[in-house]
Amino acid sequence: EAGVAQSPRYKIIEKRQSVAFWCNPISGHATLYWYQQILGQGPKLLIQFQNNGVVDDSQLPKDRFSAERLKGVDSTLKIQPAKLEDSAVYLCASSWDRRAHGELFFGEGSRLTVL
Amino acid sequence: GENVEQHPSTLSVQEGDSAVIKCTYSDSASNYFPWYKQELGKRPQLIIDIRSNVGEKKDQRIAVTLNKTAKHFSLHITETQPEDSAVYFCAASPVKAIFGAGTRLFVKA
After folding, report:
1. CA atoms within 13 A on the CB side of A76
2. How confident is the model at residue A100 (pLDDT cuts 50, 70, 90)?
3. CB-hemisphere CA count at 13 Å for A52?
4. What's the rounded Cα separation, in Å, for the pair A76 and A59?
5. pLDDT at residue A1, rounded to an integer
6. Residues whose CB is less than 8 angstroms from the CB of residue A53 and which lie 6 or more positions away in sequence, other chains included
7. Cross-chain Cβ contact B46/A104 below 8 Å
8. What tens digit of pLDDT does each residue of A18-66 get?
9. Percent of chain A with pLDDT over 70
10. A40, A56, A108 ranked by CB distance to B43: nearest
C-alpha cells in the first residue's frame, strides 16, 4: 500500500514570499490533516478535512495560510506571505476515521526554511 | 478545546531499564489516546493506542494505561534498547488529534 506522499521535501524562501505544499493521502482515506511541527515541539493541527469539507481550521492563521482539498483527494497548503516564524516541517496525514479515532498515517513532511 | 501536557520533556535511561512517559488531557470528551514514535528526521509512527473503554493495553515491551477519572495516561517501555531512542508523542482525540509537546528518550548502551 502506498503511503502519504508530500512534496516538496525541502523549500527555502525569503520572508514575504509565497510557498505551496502538496499532499496525496492514502487511497480511500477520507480524512486529511495538515500539521505544523516547529523544531523541538509536537505537531500542531492547522486544518482537518473530511472528504473535501473542512472539519476544523481553528488554528490556521487565515490571514496568510490557506488550504484546499479538491475532489476530496489531494490537498494543497499555501503560505502567502511567509514570515520567519513559519519555518517548520509541514506534515500531512490521513486516516480512515473521520473523528481522528484511528491511526494517523503521516507523510515524510515538507521542511520550510524562511530567511 | 483539548490541551495535552506531556512529561518529562527529556528522559535518559540505561539499556534494560524501564521508561515511563505521562500525559494529561483536559477535554473529558476525548476517547482515543494514541502514542507516536518519531525518529530523527523521520515521520511520526503509531506504536500503541488505547480507547476510553479500556484501562490498559500491552504489546510486547510497551504498554499504555489510562485513568479517565484523573484524565491522564502513560506509556511504559520495559527492557529498553538503544533503538528505542526517539521522540515520543502522546495525543488525545475528542474529534481532532491534539499532540503533546513530546518526550525525547535516550537509551544508553
Report:
1. 9
2. low
3. 7
4. 17
5. 62
6. none
7. yes
8. 999 999 999 999 899 999 999 989 999 999 999 889 999 999 999 999 9
9. 97
10. A108
Q: Residue A19 CB: number of other CB atoms within 10 A?
A: 19
Average pLDDT, chain A: 93
The CA distance from B8 to the nearest CA of chain A, in Å, is: 13
Residue A71 DSSP SS3: helix
Phi-psi region of A72 (alpha: psi -120 to 50; beta: other; left: phi over 0): left
**pLDDT at residue A15 is higher than 90:** yes
Question: Is-contact A96 A29, C-beta < 8 A?
Answer: yes
pLDDT tens for residues B22-42?
Answer: 999 999 999 999 999 999 989
Among the listed residues B75, B28, B22, B24, the one whose alpha carbon sits nearest the alpha carbon of residue B50: B75
Task: Closest CB to B97: pick one of A100, A107, A108.
Answer: A100
Q: Which residues of B touch A (CB under 8 A)?
A: 1, 6, 31-32, 34, 36, 42-46, 49, 51, 89, 93, 95-102
| Strands B86-92 vs B32-38: parallel, antiparallel or unpaired | antiparallel
A76 alpha carbon, distance to own chain's centre:
7
Q: Which of A110, A78, A105 is nearest to A93 (CA)?
A: A105
What length is written for chain B?
109
Grid coordinates 507523510 are at which residue?
A107
